[in-house]
Design a protein that fits this description.
alpha+beta; 7-stranded antiparallel β-sheet; 6-stranded antiparallel β-sheet; 20 strands; globular; disordered N terminus
């Protein structure tokens, strides 16, 4: 790295003067539209031109007001025009490095590098270097994560790191392979396949994307225009069959449209996903228009979560998230993918040779925690509680028509049918919630820690595999109704992932056994 003036402080690439004005103008499109409308009403179009000038000027000043430097101990960033801000991160606190490049950045050979330290930061306090020369990024990422590797690394690993000078040409649009750890080449543990797109509509992300747009349209009166149109009025004047057919076609069209949106979003985000493991770090790369590369320190891995929403579960698919300290609480490793691919990646992360070798553990290897361990169910009291919680609201709702009927008033038949259908759905849901409820404790073995595996939920089911060293505390809690049933919810506190991992409705006498088996001696017995 060249030694710049001013005590090592460097500026971002000059090409950011082309990027930031465009990105800021896109960001403030609603403001520009408002000023354009205001200028048209006041017969003064200079309003919008003045706002455009201010936005561009502020974007350009970022190049003059943003500097950074990397010292042997810290990574520092200075930003701000009116209010100067200086961020300093110890290099030993760097937990992850994210690299992004959208179409504009890639066209200009730039990238955005973000540093994760495990602390929740506000938008203005995030350590982000926007518009670095893409050729500098691989070596910079290696330098920032150098503390994750052994100080006595092999000569092969050192050669990979120092083979080219800092700033050697690297194409960020191509898959980047991180340096090998301990002399071993990175191993690909997962990669994206085209047929995975079929699972995208099953996660309901399309509805989550469309709902705000529909809400905004209703807020600005577009719904009134639609409902007052001649086509809709023609349907309202038609027979019941025509109205039912129109509603059915509308629902089908909405489902198809939302599914297409979900598939498009899935492709844009996860196209070309590649997950590499070099023994010390986990490297993810994905994205169609905006490429993103994330490097995670495997020393911070405390387990993994298999997310199984109902629709994905019925299709034999799931999502995989890492339980790590210092990263996003829901750090996704695999998007919607076949369960076999999820299990294989999970087995690699948890070193489960029983799954990796098709059930045959090689001679000389101590079997670590299996990925598909059989879970212990929580007994009849937990089963009754599932049905009580599901059917209780239905029974309360049924009291209204029953009271009206006892008062001598007629209740339409369709109301009773609806209540019966709701009760049937509630019973199926309760049974599925019980089937998904369970836990397992895998005791420690030579060279392997104990594991806690817990699962709960139906519509949104998580199977959490948490390593015992990741547990920093326990909570045993009982609600009023749990005390009556002799049940308790055991919560394992952790600094990683979601922070709290629940073993729901466990018989109280088994709660203390669970804690003692996962973390012996923590109860003080």
């Amino acid at each position: 790295m060249d030694a710049p003036a001013d005590e090592g402080w460097q500026r971002l690439d000059k090409r950011m003067l082309l990027v930031h004005p465009i990105t800021e103008l896109i960001r403030f499109i609603p403001v520009l539209l408002a000023t354009l409308i205001a200028g048209a009403r006041s017969d003064n179009p200079m309003w919008s031109l003045g706002v455009v000038g201010i936005i561009v000027l502020l974007a350009v000043t970022r190049w003059f007001t943003t500097t950074y430097r990397i010292t042997p101990d810290n990574v520092e960033l200075r930003t701000g025009l009116l209010q100067r801000k200086r961020l300093s991160v110890p290099r030993t606190r760097v937990r992850s490095v994210d690299v992004e490049a959208d179409l504009l950045h890639r066209a200009l050979g730039l990238a955005v590098l973000s540093i994760g330290t495990g602390q929740q930061a506000e938008r203005g306090d995030q350590f982000k270097l926007d518009s670095l020369d893409a050729r500098l990024v691989p070596d910079l990422r290696t330098a920032l994560l150098a503390h994750t590797r052994d100080a006595t690394g092999s000569a092969g690993a050192q050669a990979v790191t120092s083979a080219e000078p800092f700033g050697a040409p690297v194409d960020i649009s191509k898959p980047a392979v991180p340096p090998a750890a301990n002399g071993h080449a990175p191993v690909e543990i997962a990669h994206w396949q085209q047929n995975w797109v079929r699972f995208a509509p099953l996660s309901l992300t399309g509805f989550a994307f469309i709902a705000p747009i529909v809400g905004l349209a209703f807020q600005y009166g577009i719904a009134d225009v639609i409902f007052e149109s001649s086509a809709v009025r023609g349907v309202e004047d038609s027979s019941g069959r025509v109205i039912a057919l129109f509603v059915a076609v509308l629902i089908v069209a909405l489902v198809v449209f939302v599914s297409l949106v979900a598939c498009a979003r899935y492709l844009a985000t996860w196209y070309g996903l590649q997950v590499l493991d070099d023994g010390k770090t986990l490297h993810l790369r994905h994205g169609l228009f905006t490429t993103r590369q994330t490097t995670l320190d495997l020393a911070r891995l405390r387990g993994a979560t298999v997310n199984e929403p109902l629709l994905l579960r019925l299709a034999g698919a799931a999502e995989l998230e890492a339980i790590m300290t210092g990263t996003d609480p829901r750090q996704k490793l695999l998007p919607q993918a076949p369960r076999t691919a999820v299990d294989h990646t999970l087995a690699h992360l948890l070193h489960d040779e029983a799954v990796l070798y098709g059930g045959a553990v090689p001679v000389g290897l101590t079997p670590p925690p299996p990925v598909t361990v059989r879970l212990i169910q929580h007994g009849p009291a937990a089963l009754r509680r599932r049905f009580t919680r599901a059917l209780g609201p239905v029974a309360a709702l049924a009291l209204i028509p029953i009271a009206v009927s006892l008062a001598g008033n007629h209740i339409p038949t369709w109301i009773w049918v609806t209540l019966v259908v709701i009760a049937a759905i509630a019973m199926v849901l309760a049974w599925d919630r019980y089937r998904g409820l369970g836990h397992a404790v895998i005791p420690a073995a030579p060279g392997h820690s104990a594991w806690l595996v817990t699962r709960s939920g139906s519509l949104d089911r998580d199977r959490d595999c948490l390593e015992a060293p990741g547990v920093i505390g326990w909570t045993v809690r009982q609600s009023f109704f749990q005390r009556r049933a002799g049940l308790a919810t055991v919560v394992a506190a952790s600094a990683a992932g979601k922070k709290r991992y629940h073993v729901v409705d466990l018989p109280l006498e088994k709660a203390w056994e669970l804690i003692e088996s996962v973390t012996p001696g923590q109860l003080g017995r």
